[in-house]
Amino acid sequence: MKTVDTFSFKEKRALIRVDYNVPLDESFVIQDDSRITESLSTIKKILNDGGSVVLMSHLGRPKNGPENKFSLKHLVSHLEILTGVKVLFSDDCVSKKAINTSKNLEIGTIHLLENLRFYPEETSGNNDFAEKLSEHGDIYVNDAFGTAHRSHASTAVIARHFTDKCFGYLMTKEISNASMLLKNPERPFTAIVGGAKVSDKILIIQNLLNIADHIIIGGGMAYTFKCAQGGTIGNSLFEEERVETCREILIEAKKKNVQIHLPQDSIIADKFDNNANTKNCQSDQIPDVWMGLDIGGDAISTFSNVLTQSKTILWNGPMGVFEMSTFENGTKSIAKAVALATDNGAFSLIGGGDSSAAVKKFGYTNQVSYVSTGGGALLEYFEGKKLPGIVAIEG
Length: 395
Ligand code: AMP
Hints:
By secondary structure, the chain is an alpha/beta fold. 35% of the residues lie in helices and 17% in strands. It has helices at 34-37, 40-48, 76-83, 96-103, 120-124, 127-134, 169-183, 198-208, 222-228, 243-255, 297-308, 329-343, 353-361, 376-382, 388-394; strands at residues 13-17, 52-56, 87-90, 110-113, 139-142, 165-167, 189-193, 214-217, 232-233, 259-261, 265-269, 278-282, 285-286, 291-295, 312-316, 347-350, 370-371.
């Protein structure tokens, strides 16, 4: 794998695609700077080599060109504090002025470009736009795993305009962890798949049938599976057009000797509300009006037992509506079981988005092996797809 260690950046300008899509409050104060801190080792390596750094990123989803609330200028002072280096900012990413600033950049300094998505050419993957962007640097570095599944100008198309291109440290870490799970997991390998919809997770489950020994299925998506087995699920989340696929997955799992674990019991509620009336119920006997919003105590025990015996764990998607305290226990208990298994020597990879948020919320971030920064990217990776951001560099 070509990484920043492959090159010396002495007297070179590195153009780094970072993911600085950080949450800002109404006063534009950064609420969580982990995406910036995760990029620091790559930046430091380049500066220590005697090079200079041009950073490009998106922030939010601007629809109609430049908008103050999506400006990357709000990150400049914090970036200067974190790097201890002067940060120049350009209020555009492809203007002559911005490109000249990069061309005249002093060694040891950083130039941050304005939000790439102020131009629709970024997301449409426009080649002319990518070519203009490429003028900012001598070596292209992709360190934005969170957007690696997008074929955007700055994440994929741009690479064809560089002879020298590589992955940053964050991207390298993400790819090596994910590929280790995909290609060479220590067994037993358990995948936990949860979240709202079966339709979003069908491809990953189908691909995991070729890799995992156990698949634990929780969250709203478990009820379509329960229905496929002939259960009654009341008002729980249900995707009628997916029942047949769920049936096929269950049959395929048997053939491939993969054990699928569905929650035998659930915490059911009479409305989608933190203050709803609740009770424990068998997941295949949920009465009318009631809905399953979390896994129950028996499911927690079964799932935890499977996890205790696992040597590799992948987790994508919560076990219930963990944002509401009444329905957080399942996700919290599974986070604890993953942490315990990790303490006993298992390798655990937590896959972006809601699973990372849950692990963070319940205080287990430092007790799992790796929390990925990529939600959609990691999901697509485990669906078996080639990610454009990776292909663009590896060829
Ligand atoms: P996803 O984006 O597909 O990973 O889904 C995450 C969302 O699924 C979270 O916002 C959870 O609140 C929601 N969720 C998990 N379990 C359930 C459930 N049993 N019923 C409804 N929503 C759920």
